Every structure is written in structure tokens, then in C-alpha cells.
């Protein structure tokens, strides 16, 4: 009976201990749930901010593409109008050549000579000659005025004080018309059409030049904004890279250098690293482990500038030794507040900091089983 009483008392004590442990576990579970909700809210907020920034970036990129397309359209239109202008100039040159071939004078010379003859009164009859069809047609037709230019000595009066009689004027004009041959009666209309076309093309060219200038201004503003944002991000990431590199290597120096500082948007970037005990050199001259650790430092520097909600790392710690693994683990823990890291690893020290482990085991030969362990 005494033994049973003692066992009963022990069972009662154990039950009370288990009840207290269950109560503490429930309280801890509630605290963990509240913490999980807070973390999930933080992740949602960070994701919304990331989506907003991504939307802004896409909007700027769309504007740049549209501006470039508009510029290409304007350039094509300018090329087309330039071809039309060249065609019009060629047509004018052809007309000038036809004039030279017909009357042996250029358009400017013919116009000057006709103006001089009108001023001297050589194209005006001393009395009405309406009854003479040829004379009336000659006086009203601008092409006839050009006929007087091939022989300036014939157009000059015999004496300065005497004017031509109507018969002499008609005879003289008929001779000149016969010498001139066929007259292009459409020359004036063609000239008017070409002049109107030239005026229209000039106005269109001015509009295109103004459009090109406005488009270039927009592109310059976009390039300026992009360059300023890139320089700001580059400076911050470079500063973060120096800190993460020193932390992961336990010393040393590192930095990012633009290959072409005059064109930052198109320039390449060179990574200069100097681990402890080594001189400053390009990353291509480092060992495999040093390259991996430098790449980690750059990745963490970028994440510090713009954290991502999630990050998947696949065997990133494979080339690292135990000392570097320790610094790498500390860096991961320090960035865990803003980014959730998912690691694929075989390293024990890396596994020790995980909140949850997933793995594959083989309880029976040839039979694999997926297991998960909640650590924290």
C-alpha cells in the first residue's frame, strides 16, 4: 500500500508538471503565432513596396521605349521629307536645264533680262495691237518674254529715241517665237506647284525639327534621371560592399569601379578586392573560395540597398572553410530581419541557424522519405 501511495503521489506530481509544461507550451505557441503574424505583415508590406518600385521602373522603361519609338518615327519621316525635298530640287534643276537648253540662259538671267526690257518699254507697243492675235498672245504669255533673251542685240532698238512700230514688234516677236521653238506652256503652273510643294515641305520640316528637339529634350531628361539614380545606387552599393567584404573576410578592402565613367549607363563594372594579407587586385586573380566570398559580399551589399522578401541560395557555402562559414552565418542572421533565406546546404554550422530543416532520409534500403524539423 505504501508503494502504491508513493507511486500515486509521483503520478500526481508528474501530471502537474505535464499540465504546467502544456500551459507553458500553449503560451509560447501563442507568442510564436503573434510573432509569425507580425513577420507576415512585415513581409506583405515589403512586398507591396517592392511591387510599387517595380511598377515605377516598368513605367520609366515603357516611357523610354515609347520615346525611342517616337524618335525613330520622326527620323523616318524626316528622311522621307528629305527625299521629297531632293526630288523637288531635282525637278527645279531639270526646269532650269530645260530653260538653258531652250533659250541658252538660266532662269535668273531670263528674269533679269525680261525685267530690263519691261523697264525700257521694249515689250509695250506704241499703240493698241489687239487686232493682232499673235501679238496679244505674246504680250499675255510669260513664256514669250523669255523668247527675247536669246538675241539681246535684236531686242535693242535701232536708235535710243525711236520705238518699234507695231508691225516691227510683231515681226520681231514672230521671229523670236520661231527661233524659240515649242514653248512649255505648263512651266509657270509647274513652278507654282513646286513652289507650293516646297512651302509645304518647309513647314513640315520645321514641325519635324521641333518634334525632334522636344523628343531629344525628353530623352535627355530621362537619361539625366536614370544617371542620377544609377550613381546614387552605385555609391550606396559600393559603400555597403566595402562593409560586407570586410565583415566576411575579417578585414581587407574591396570596391566597385566603373570602366567608363564618362558613360555610366553603358559602362561595365570591375570588382577590385584585397583580402587580408594580399594587395589590391581584380577578382579574376582570387582563388575559388575568395571569389565565392566576394560574390556573397556583393550580393549582401545589394540586398542591404534594396532587400528582397525571399532569397534562395544553392550550395553557396560549399567552398568556404569553418572560419568563413562562421562569418557567413553571422551575416545571414543579421539580414534575416528583412529577407527570408532558403538555403540548400550540407554544412552543419549553416544548418544550426535554420528555423526549419527539410531533408531526405532512407529508413529502408531503396526507400526515400522527406522529413522536416522545426528548430526555432
Jot down its keywords:
three-stranded antiparallel β-sheet, 3 domains, rod-shaped, two-stranded parallel ribbon, mainly alpha, Rossmann fold, 376 residues, single chain, 7 strands
How would you sum up this structure, described in words?
This protein has 376 residues and is mainly alpha-helical. The protein has 3 domains: 2-83; 85-204, no CATH class; 308-376, P-loop containing nucleotide triphosphate hydrolases (Rossmann fold). Helices cover 66% and strands 11% of the residues. The chain has helices spanning 2-103, 107-120, 133-140, 142-147, 152-155, 166-180, 187-249, 288-305, 322-335, 348-352; strands at 253-258, 269-274, 281-282, 310-314, 340-344, 356-364, 367-374. The protein has a 3-stranded antiparallel β-sheet with strand order 1-2-3. Strand 6 (356-364) and strand 7 form a beta hairpin. Helix 1 (2-103) packs antiparallel against helix 7 (187-249) and helix 7 (187-249) packs across helix 8. It is rod-shaped and about 165 Å long. Mean pLDDT is 80; it is low at 125-161.
Amino acid at each position: 500500500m505504501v508503494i502504491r501511495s508513493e507511486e500515486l503521489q509521483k503520478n500526481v506530481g508528474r501530471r502537474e508538471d505535464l499540465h504546467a509544461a502544456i500551459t507553458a507550451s500553449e503560451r509560447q505557441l501563442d507568442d510564436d503565432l503573434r510573432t509569425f503574424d507580425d513577420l507576415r505583415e512585415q513581409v506583405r508590406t515589403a512586398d507591396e513596396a517592392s511591387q510599387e518600385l517595380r511598377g515605377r521602373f516598368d513605367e520609366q522603361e515603357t516611357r523610354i521605349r515609347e520615346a525611342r519609338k517616337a524618335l525613330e518615327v520622326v527620323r523616318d519621316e524626316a528622311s522621307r521629307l528629305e527625299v521629297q525635298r531632293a526630288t523637288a530640287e531635282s525637278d527645279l534643276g531639270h526646269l532650269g536645264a530645260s530653260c538653258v537648253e531652250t533659250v541658252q540662259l538660266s532662269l535668273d538671267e531670263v528674269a533679269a533680262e525680261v525685267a530690263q526690257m519691261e523697264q525700257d518699254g521694249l515689250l509695250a507697243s506704241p499703240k493698241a495691237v489687239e487686232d493682232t492675235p499673235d501679238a496679244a498672245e505674246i504680250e499675255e504669255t510669260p513664256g514669250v518674254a523669255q523668247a527675247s533673251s536669246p538675241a539681246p542685240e535684236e531686242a535693242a532698238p535701232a536708235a535710243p529715241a525711236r520705238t518699234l512700230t507695231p508691225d516691227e514688234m510683231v515681226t520681231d516677236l514672230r521671229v523670236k517665237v520661231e527661233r524659240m521653238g515649242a514653248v512649255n506652256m505648263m512651266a509657270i503652273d509647274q513652278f507654282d506647284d513646286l513652289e507650293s510643294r516646297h512651302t509645304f515641305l518647309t513647314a513640315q520640316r520645321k514641325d519635324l525639327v521641333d518634334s525632334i528637339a522636344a523628343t531629344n529634350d525628353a530623352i535627355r531628361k530621362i537619361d539625366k534621371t536614370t544617371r542620377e539614380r544609377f550613381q546614387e545606387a552605385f555609391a550606396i552599393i559600393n559603400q555597403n560592399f566595402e562593409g560586407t567584404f570586410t565583415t566576411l573576410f575579417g578585414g581587407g578592402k574591396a570596391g566597385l569601379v566603373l570602366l567608363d565613367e564618362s558613360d555610366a549607363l553603358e559602362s561595365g563594372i570591375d570588382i577590385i578586392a584585397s583580402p587580408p594579407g594580399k594587395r589590391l587586385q581584380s577578382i579574376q586573380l582570387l582563388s575559388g573560395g575568395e571569389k565565392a566570398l566576394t560574390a556573397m559580399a556583393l550580393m549582401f551589399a545589394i540586398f542591404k540597398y534594396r532587400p528582397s522578401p525571399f532569397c534562395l541560395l544553392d550550395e553557396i557555402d560549399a567552398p568556404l572553410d569553418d572560419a568563413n562559414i562562421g562569418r557567413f552565418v553571422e551575416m545571414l542572421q543579421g539580414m534575416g530581419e528583412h529577407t527570408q533565406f532558403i538555403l540548400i546546404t550540407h554544412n552543419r554550422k549553416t544548418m544550426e541557424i535554420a528555423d526549419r530543416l527539410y531533408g531526405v532520409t532512407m529508413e529502408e534500403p531503396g526507400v526515400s522519405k522527406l522529413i522536416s524539423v522545426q528548430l526555432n
